[in-house]
Amino acid sequence: MKTDKKKTLIFALQKSLPVLFGYLFLGSAFGIMLYEAGYNWVWAIFISLIVYAGSGQFLLVSLLSTHATIPTVAFMTLFINSRHIFYGLSYIEKFRQGKWRYPFMIFSLTDETYSVNASITSVPDGVSEPQARHLIGFFDHIYWIIGSVIGSVAGQLIPIDFTGIDFSMTALFVVIFIDLLTEQKGRNKLIGIVGIASAVICLVIFGAEKFLLPSLIITVAILSGAKPYFSKEVVK
């Protein structure tokens, strides 16, 4: 099937729009925190360009403020963002279809980009799925950088109390998750139920500080074991 670059671009842009509004606020929160820690907008661009790890970047601001050692920064970042390992495992085959785009697609797979990718169960005629997934990651990264710069400049120029702005990441993820569950596809709803159930059980067992990693392991194990069922449903 012949692909249309314009259709692919428009499709990817439309899919990334929910992330745009979330990242403008969330990126701004990071930029504000970074400025208050003594780093200007140039550092906001550099860190968002190279690190690009959402919660990891917020953690980095705190670690920079306390003059943490490099091993400490590395260990804490690995611990906070270990969930991305599971994100990547579920998209190895699809991202390989992107060929030379593969490394960047891995790098740009944040929580929100993963959610958008998960919501794509099919693409319209003329749209290249590998190119679309690559563009979604690219657009999301640009949104984050822009938000970071806006926040850094706003923190310097506007005397406003920005308390609570960092909640925008949680709100964005919830909205994307609800959108996934409300699709008229039993497969997506079942996947969502598995994720919720494993998170609640692990929260009760391990507590709020340690539940994320085991809940992800359980979810991946269940969904991997049930892969034949989901494949049959897709065929239907």
What would you say this structure looks like, in words?
Helix content is 75%, strand content 0%. The two termini are 22 Å apart. Helix 1 runs parallel beside helix 9, helix 8 runs antiparallel to helix 9 and helix 8 runs parallel beside helix 10. The chain contains 13 helices and no strands. The protein is globular. The protein is an all-alpha fold and 236 residues long.
Figure out the total of helices: 13
How is the main sheet built?
none
**Beta fraction of the residues?**
under 5%
The count of DSSP E runs of length 2 or more, i.e. the number of strands, is 0
Shape: globular
N-to-C span: 22 Å
Element-by-element helix/strand order = HHHHHHHHHHHHH
- Point out poorly predicted stretches: none
Q: How much is the radius of gyration in Å?
A: 19 Å
The percentage helix is over 70%
Q: Would you tell me the structural class of the helices and strands?
A: mainly alpha
Mean pLDDT level: 79
